Amino acid sequence: MRIYKDKYIERSFTTGGEWMTRNEKGQYTEYIGPIISYSGEPFGGEKMSPKLEKEMKLYKFEASKDSILYDEIKPKYSRNFIEPIPYKHKLTDEEKEKGEYSRYFCEILNLNSIIEVNKEQHKYFKKDSTPYHKNIEIVEIKLKTSVKSISYNKQQIAKAAEKIKEIKNFVMPTDYMNWPRNVRGIQRDRLSNRFYPEGERVPDVLPKAYQEGNDIVQTNPIVPIRQNCAGCIFYEDRWCEKFGAEVKENYWCAKYIYDIEEDTYYRPDIDLPE
User: Fold this and answer.
1) The pLDDT value given to residue 255
2) How far is CA 250 from the centre of its chain?
3) I want to staple 203 with a disulfide (CB 3.0 to 4.6 A). Which of 28, 51, 56, 245 is the partner?
4) Are residues 3 and 49 in contact, defined by beta-carbon separation less than 8 angstroms?
5) CB proximity list for 158: less than 8 A, separation 6 or greater
6) Which residues in 76-176 belong to E strands, given as ranges?
7) Is 160:139 a contact under the CB 8 Å cutoff?
8) Three-state SS for 13?
9) What is the CB neighbour count within 10 angstroms for residue 198?
10) Which residues pair with 140 in a beta bridge?
11) What is the pLDDT of residue 164?
12) d(Cα 191, Cα 130) in Å, to the nearest integer?
């Protein structure tokens, strides 16, 4: 029979939010009650025994998708926790006037679920006041509506992706941007059909933002420098795989994604102007 020496034993008590036990199925439950530590190892109970050592080992209270079942957390926490409510941002008159706006997103880690929320919810989840909050990752993305701010918006989204990896699937750098009717390299007839300067018809499936791009010299002030169809990941031999249409290599649209194989020296996160 094992003998537990008193000099290695310490006793304490927890009222919750500190420790968990784990059952045979690997499920965690919050532990409340007396704690006995032997040689620094905590167990739930008052007296050390082989059975206690085997069945009542305590684990640090953590909120992660791998370590906890949230429906087993003490009810007082769930009562004080408000679940995220999906929200769809709409540009306000004030935001339109300023040309700037913010969007807020949260990721529920144990569900791998991303939800857009409003400003008030963002403030609430930022408090981190209950163990449930540890299961929520939040970001605020500050964006601009000017067509000259595409690069800036891309940088803001990339920064947010450091916290929520898939955020780029929920917000685009060109959201709320109004493209001018007359863009560089595109002409229109009375029916608003688009044509290249030499008279060739522009495929209707191409977006409104489709226009002349830039090379190392920025001739089109709307488009970031060194961005054109030829350097886009969707471009293949005068064909755009994104829109399924023929394009010109020196043109551009807002769906542009940098292709490192086409220009190994170009770094859009450094070279692009705001």
Assistant:
1) 85
2) 32
3) 245
4) no
5) 168, 269
6) 100-108, 113-117, 136-144
7) yes
8) strand
9) 6
10) 104
11) 92
12) 59
Our CA angle for 274, 114, 99, nearest 5°, is 30
Q: Which residue shows structure tokens 């009542």?
A: 56
* Pure H helices in the chain: 50-55, 75-79, 93-98, 119-126, 150-160, 268-271
- Token pair 């300067």 is found at 197
Q: How many other CB atoms are there within 10 angstroms of residue 57's CB atom?
A: 15
Distance CA 11, CA 170 (A): 50
Cβ atoms of 201 and 246 closer than 8 Å: no
Token pair for 46: 């008052």
How far is residue 270's CA from residue 242's CA, in Å, rounded to a whole number? 25
Q: Which of 41, 33, 55 lies closest to 10, judged by CA?
A: 41
Dihedral of the CA atoms 130, 134, 136, 139 (nearest 10)?
100
Structure tokens at 191: 């029916």
pTM of the model: 0.52
The per-residue pLDDT of the chain, averaged, comes to 81
The string of pLDDT tens digits covering residues 34-52 is 999 988 889 999 888 888 8
Instruction: Name 207's bridge partners.
Output: none
What does the block give as tokens for 23? 């059952």
Name the nearest CA neighbour of 44 among 16, 82, 64: 16
Amino acid at 142: K
Q: Which helix (H) or strand (E) holds 132?
A: none
Nearest residue to 66 (alpha-carbon basis) of 111, 125, 9, 133? 111
266, two tokens: 């170009």
